[in-house]
Fold each of these.
Amino acid sequence: MSTVTFKIWRSGEDGKDGKLVEYQTEASEGMVVLDVVHKIQATQANDLACRWNCKAGKCGSCSAEINGKPSLMCMTRLDMIPIDKPVTIEPMRAFPPLRDLVTDVSWNFRVKKKIKQFKPRPPDAPDGTWRMQQEDIDRVQEFRKCIECFLCQDVCHVLRDHNKHDEFIGPRYLVYTAALEMHPLDTEDRIPELKKAQGIGYCNITKCCTTVCPEHITITDNAIIPLKERVVDEFYDPLGWLWKIIRPKG
Amino acid sequence: MQPLFVFLGFSAFIVYSTWAAFQATSGPVYYHFGGDGADYQSPFFSPELFGGSPNALFGKLPPWWPAFLPFSPAFLMMWIPAGFRFTCYYYRGAYYKAFWLDPVACTVGEPRKSYLGERYLPLILQNVHRYFLYLAVVFICILGYDAWKSLWFIGADGVKHFGLAVGSLVLIVNVILLGGYTFGCHSLRHLVGGFLDAKSKASACANCYNAVSCLNRKHMLWAWLSLFWVGFTDVYIRLCAMNIWHDFRIFTF
Ligand code: SF4
Ligand code: SF4
Ligand code: FES
Ligand code: FES
């Protein structure tokens, strides 16, 4: 047991003009940051707002910035961060604040609606089912681990610092598009939108999204760069247009 | 890799390679070592179309080269590996951070307001990367041939004998590291199989894709090791040619 100081972001009346407020609490072994927030909520600040659900790193609700690093509060154990200094807990900065640690992430859901949905080829068998090889589905399975915590959206400088929310869909939705676009059954073409409305060219492959992803999805290398290469095939590579005619299909 | 190390590493390499290229515009040839029957060509100067070493293919000076400009064999070729690395996905991400501060570091604000990314000119030109890849693959073959030549030594009888010296090892490691870097390229990964959604329909593509993916996972490591080693190879050959280092022969048949 030791006493640890936490500086937690508390918003003002209208959700804005907040400040960091200091709380001190006992930390015991095995505690995660979300436990601390709950404890402070129970004993010192009943009106402290935070979003959470599973406490197991699977619902993606408890995203926050712990000591400036976008992380899940329920998956950050106190022995993973220095607790001899005050620990800061702030809401995600790339989204509009609602209250205390809660932000309005609804922009993400609006973006998702704009991405062309899964459109499978006609069923392979008369009973309406399909046949796929495991090796063909391996690649998209990685992307399906996403828990929509939006930490990658939060850290991405294109959204966070340059506010390109209208022109860029962010790493989470590049992963989502990759999962659809590389799916062996899918027949839709999302490449023209990726280049234009969805702004994949804004990503400058600096990999901050990959470093924060709690599901360890290799966002930049496995989703974004392969999609960028598909955009090159379609729009920037004259030889590639020839190659596309003769290369194997599938 | 911390942006500061990227900045220092990249800067050091650029300064050294530029110096090496200009150093070859006059005076004795230090990019080729022929002492003791060896034949080592520095990778910065290979293939040597025109130049002063015995490996020059077409003579000393290109006839069309303007007389008032200094000429170095590196000028004709160095833009290829330079362009390849400059447009490499790994290096791009690394130098945008280290040289352009775009971003300074994850979640650290940026010094400028406007941002174009790789969406508009000039950075949209980065999409040419795969063409540099094609040229880089040719380079690997040439450097492989140079490494092979480094295993043959002219003996006292005037005949070439197979052997091994420290210099041969330096050149062999060089082509292995450059190969690991080049064949782990993201564009190559796409071109050999990444474009497919169902790889089971083309097993040759699937195998190539898996092999490239394997190298690609450590692309950053290959990038830095090969960058360091290619510079070191030039240093090694230069110091041998200047008689400062002695090339140790392990054996000859
Ligand atoms: S790699 Fe691209 S998407 Fe990911 S954080 Fe960087 S700019 Fe954003
Ligand atoms: S890709 Fe990773 S960081 Fe981004 S929303 Fe999904 S789980 Fe979270
Ligand atoms: S509470 Fe569900 S991920 Fe943290
Ligand atoms: S991506 Fe690094 S060499 Fe092509």
Amino acid sequence: MTSLVLTLTETLRYRGALGQWSWVLHRITGLGVLLFLVLHVIGVSWAVFFPELWEKEILIYQHPLFTIGEFALTACVIYHALNGLRIGILDYNPKWWKHQQQAAIYVLIGTVVILIPTFILMFQHVLKHYQSPEAPFIVSLAFIAEAQFPFLVGIVVAAVAAVLVSSVVGLFTGGGRASADKNARQSHHGSQLERFWWRFMRTSGILIVPLVFGHLILAHIVQGVFEINLINATIPGVPVNEALGMLANGINNSGTAVEYVAERWNFFAGPVAIWRLYDAALLALVTVHGFNGLRYVLTDYTQGSPLLRRAMGYLCAMGAVALLVVGTLALLGTIDQTMVDMARAAQDAILAGG
Amino acid sequence: MDVTFRIRRFNPEVPGKNKPYWQEFTVKNVEETDRVLELLHRVKWEQDGTLTLRRACAHGVCGSDAMRINGVNKLACKVLVRDVGTKIQIEPILGLPVLKDLVVDMEPFFDHYRSVMPFFVNDTPVPADGRERRQTQEDREKFDDTTKCILCAACTTSCPSFWANGHYVGPAAIVQAHRFIFDTRDEGWKERLEILGEPNGVWRCRTIFNCTPACPREIQVTKAIGEVKLAIQQRKREGIATPVGPIAVGNG
Ligand code: HEM
Ligand code: HEM
Ligand code: SF4
Ligand code: FES
């Protein structure tokens, strides 16, 4: 961990070129989006498992603090995506690397150019919400803290568990210190795993761009977060069809976030539930990419200790598996009318101040 | 003109100086074409004989006086006052243990250098005429850039991945490996790619690009690292390395 402190302070002091700051931003934005992803996938899964909690979560997303966070999240995704593409393109074309400084500038310009119209469109949803005749409902900070606290506990528990597992493994394998013997003439084998991950980070990045941009366009531009639980609102990406049942007609009849998810996941184009498929692809790619990125970051700063280094690998693997399982189970689940009614009741109770 | 130095000092043997601290010196009658190394000499010879630094050739060939000058790694003997102004901050390079003042322990750096087999490998008999192994000019061009390295460590110690993790083999060792990997006459390239394909080999490079502007020889360091990565990815060395054209990122 001393290496983390040293790297942080000296990165601020070293007068590196633009690429140094691109890296800092890439790292921070990647980690920021990953943190959101963990809260988000677990949150969405509640639509299936604990309808009241998902209803509550969307009310929290409508708090002004989260609105600011949402703008930041969008900026993070866009910067990280463009800079990731820059890294990938230059990595596969070393001969173009004399343009890297310019490319880093184009990434910044591109981010701003995309962000300006995006922010204007997003802000219109915010304005509309706050100008509506009924006073907008804002949950209390205590309410938010209570709902988000379990996540903090979960992350701490996972980290402690990873360190414990790593100590046990260390007991059986001699702690990995043997290989530190400098005089031992080792034979070298390139790591096929690292070779794979390097390629994966770049190819998954390219696939994630359209998926996550599409997802954000539906959730932020076509409609805003405020419309997710708006009664009688249409559902983005789901055509209105009155002939279908209440949970598949393209209209949020109950005005609940739970029905919103139900509508999206019940939409079939021919035999295919395309939004489930879409979310599954997004889930798989983003989770694996994000947690491998986290592993890169965490193992950078824990090379001094075999125990911690291993623990960080386990932590990331556990995190990825847990998130994939939760997200997939949700995608395979069904949402019925009783769950929507439960969500409606929960929303009414909160709005009534209960 | 006068120049003010702010120098990072450390002496493990003297109580009170065994924690890094800053000390200022003013050097008078300086020409703008004076080199920073000469001025450090004047500090040492005229003001404080205990100031400790490494240098030998004073002409940018031996690679012993890399230091952090006004925040960036440079060779003191190649930098003129004109280039850095009259307020000059000097620190040892980062990521290697400081022994005294500006002198760092280079052994970990050389360990990484030795780990990549930085020597010519070819066990086949020499050609029948008993003279050199021939190579086309185009083939020679492909690694010309990386033959210029003087092992000053400016690149490796400018890299945030190396600051974080001293086990990372680092840019300089990869540059040295590049010089042999892409030499058509060399036969050790496969083994070198195995060595550099380890978790603390090239994969720790995050394309941050601090190393290229740090190199006093204007070697395109990040490009060289990228070519080695591709050679490992594609398990071949043909068609990867390209000659360096006009240099875009100089040692400004
Ligand atoms: C504040 C911004 C966002 C909002 C309001 C939002 C909203 C939603 C909603 C309503 C769903 C439910 C299903 C659906 O409508 O398709 C969902 C699912 C999902 N979202 Fe987002 N999203 C946001 C940002 C993101 C970002 C940035 C990512 C990627 C990093 C992401 C990844 C996912 C994934 C993977 C699922 C599927 C979850 C599962 O499998 O259970 N979302 N999102
Ligand atoms: C939108 C498209 C995306 C692209 C093109 C992209 C691309 C990249 C690339 C090229 C890297 C560098 C890997 C390396 O240095 O070997 C990277 C790292 C990373 N990405 Fe992404 N990524 C994208 C989306 C995401 C998302 C949605 C997340 C969060 C869930 C994420 C989290 C990370 C993290 C944490 C890192 C590690 C940063 C580091 O090592 O400094 N990325 N990404
Ligand atoms: S590549 Fe350049 S900066 Fe790095 S050690 Fe060689 S000469 Fe010094
Ligand atoms: S003293 Fe030899 S390179 Fe500067």
